Structure formats: C-alpha cells, structure tokens
Amino acid sequence: MSTSLQAKAANIEANGHTVIPYQSNGNPKPYGDKQRYPSYMVRADDIQFGVRLDGMILLDLDGNKVAEAPSPEVLLAMLGLPGDTPANQYRMLTDSQPDGSYHWLFRLPAGVDLASLKQSVNNANGLAGVDVKTGNQLVYIKADKVLHGDTIPKLADLPEAPAILLGWITKPKHEPKVMAPMVSSAETSRYGERALTSACEAIVSAPMGSRNETLNREALGVAQLVAGGEICHADAERQLFAAGMASGQSVQEVKATIASAHQKGMQEPRKAPPKRQPLADKKGSKKTGSLLAANVVSLRPEQDNAAPLLDQMSASQRGEALASGLGTLAINVDTNLVYRYTGSLWEPMPDAVLARRMAAMFKQQGAKYSARMISTAVDTMKLGLDEMQRPALNLIGFANGVYDMALRAFRPHSLVDGLLTHNGIEYSEPLVGETLAHRFYRRRPPGSGWHRSAPRRGGTSDCAVGTSSRGQTQMRQTTPAG
C-alpha cells in the first residue's frame, strides 16, 4: 500500500524541510519570503505539494518529456557519480519500467555563497531535459511518483553537490569593460559630453541579465538631452551604438533599443541644470548689499520662494517628491516591491528604477547626492505607500476592463482590482440576436476558437469565452444559475 501524500508531507517536515501546500486555485502558497506552513495543510485530495529547496540543489531529468535528454547513467557519469546513484523521486510506467523522470537532491557545500549561484537553470550545461534548481525554488512531491523512503532525508544526510554540478549553475564573474574614449563634436555641450560618457560607461559595465535594460534606460536619458540641445544627435547615436556592441548585445538588439528610447526621449526634452548663483559677499557694507539686492535679476526666478532643493530636504520630503512624480503608487508588502498604476494594470517599479529616478531629480536641480541619500529616500517613500490589493480570483482582465465572474458583468478597470496582467483583448457585448448554438459544447467544431471556462469551486453556472465574427472577445453564460 502506497504512502499518502499527507504522510509524505509530515515525514519531510519532520526532517526539517519546509513544506509548501497548494491553494484551491492550483498555485502553491506564497513562499518567497521564507514563509512556513504546517504539513497538515496538505489536503487528502491534493495531487502534489512543494518543498522549498533552501540549502538543497535539485537535479531534474525529464527524460519522459525530452527525447534528446541523456540517460540517467550518462548524466550521473558526467557528474562523477556512480550510475546506480538512487534518485530521490521518480515515476514508474509499470512495476518494473520507469518513465524517465528523475529527481536527485544534494546538499549545498559549506562555504558556497547562494548569491553566487543561479537559482534555476534549464537545459543545464546545454543538456536537453536537464534542469537544476536551488535556493528559493521548489521541488514538487507528486502523488503519482515514487518518493524514495517516503521522505526527503535531513539536509546533513544528503550527499554533497558535486563541483561539476555547482559549475553548471555558478554565475559568470562580471568583469567591467573599458570603452575607448570618443571625441564629441562642438555641437555637444560640456554637460552633454559628461552625461553621454557616463551613460556609455554604465552600458558597457552592465552585468549579464540587465544589459538591454541598462541600454534602454541610458539611451532614453541621452535622447532627452538631445531633444534639449545638449548632445548632438550624431554623437549620441554613434557612441551609444558602440557602447551597446561593447556590452555584448547583438546589432539588431542594440539598434532597436536605441531607436525605441530615442523616439520616447525626444518627447521629453531635458537641459543641463542651471548653475547655482554664488552667495553675495558677506563682507560688503549693508549699503552696498542693499544696492546690489535692489538691482539683482534672479537667474532662476522659478526657484525664488520655492521649496528647498533636494539636498536640503529630509529623507521623507525626498520620498514624497519622488512619489509625486510617479503617479499612483502602492507596495506589495510580501515582496516589498513598489508598483505604479497605469490605468489598467499595476506595473512593477524595482528599487533600481526608483533610485535612478531620484538621481535624475538631483541632477536636474544640480544638487549633490550620494547612494545612501537616494536609497534612504526610496526606503522612506515605501513606508508611506498604501498596500496593493491582491488580484481577485473572480476577475478576468481584458484590455478595456474586467469581467466579474461573480456578478456576471463587465466593467471598466479599477486600481482596487490589483491586476498585474490582462489578456490584451478588447471585450465587447454581443450583437443583437447573436447567441451561441444550442448544446454548443456537444458539437463545437475543432479549432472553433471557443473553449469552456475552468469550473470554479462553488460555482453555479458555466461560461464560454471566444472570438466573435468581429474578432472581439465575448463571454456568454451557457447554463442557468441557481
């Protein structure tokens, strides 16, 4: 008699591992912030649950899905392990024939910094069907698989991960590249030249995984200065392209990114911040001072009697100034990530982006700043943000609004919906007389574009979603409620 999934969860928990049960919506419970749950939350009707890897490394072979995947013996030999090394979890087609799906678990060696490893690598070392995971990732314990010993051994009892396996997921060391200096034309100001050089240095030294994002961000800032007359367009295009190529990106990718950033940046002109006026000579006589004051024409009248500069503000004031220019913001308290409402969706605003925005505000004023000042302002701003609403499970997001499954009604977007994405389709009401065919589900043709919605727990009616003759998405109730 096979051991139940609930018993396996209890065994794994007893060995010190973190069990992550599944929710009724088919997704695992949140686990990104070291959350822990009791094993009894795994239900009798569940088909799987997760175990957070933390200090373990998972070697996952999907020979049942990928024909080109290596055999278990070949894979283990590549790692310097015996070919009969037992898998921690596997699936059997018959009593004597496995289906090719295997999980091996290893212990992260002492002294290895988890931050130096990629937490999830597909087709590791170029091997089809071989995935490696660690850290804040899950290994899924499934009811239709055999779990060796009906548990996962204690971390200390697991074999140490082979050095070769660690090499497959170790992040490449980032070595900043140096770009040869380039001469700008006379049309580029000294301020523009410094800004362009700084942008190119940031692009060239960007780490893998953020190179294109850095190119887009820096090219956008340069384009704004081009629009403001600080940088010659030819200088910007030539030097940004050289920096993009030096960072290791493809020609097509660099050209497309620069063109996109240029188009947007030209709509937001930016000039060099005006220089600060020197203070009046305090040693002068009161009479001379009064005469000077009477005849002084302010070079920056818009800042006379204005709020203090950013470098004179407190951290909370800087945070308020940053938030005021970003629109409607909220924070996900689980991830501590800031989101901005676009009118239909909440888009993430990573700390790095917020810091760049804050730095740009300092530069615009010509004020001095430091990394600590900026990070403190960002952190302080977060403390005052409202908590973002979690997406409601009864809503289907469309480009022009949401369909409420509970109310069976369509309505415009609202920021309280907490939507992070939608299907990008325009929803429309049916035309007069337009209905679904009688007993549609029993005789719909293949490829008709319609499908039955997934049943909801406790639901009392069914709906169909599909594309009408006008190419617009429609939704119909197909069985009476009640």
UniProtKB/TrEMBL annotation:
Compositionally skewed regions (Polar residues) per UniProt: 466-482
Origin superkingdom: Bacteria
InterPro entries on file: Phage/plasmid_primase_P4_C
Residue ranges of coiled coil: none
Region (Disordered): 260-286, 444-482
Domain Bacteriophage/plasmid primase P4 C-terminal: residue ranges: 319-445
Protein name listed in UniProt: Bacteriophage/plasmid primase P4 C-terminal domain-containing protein
Species: Aeromonas encheleia
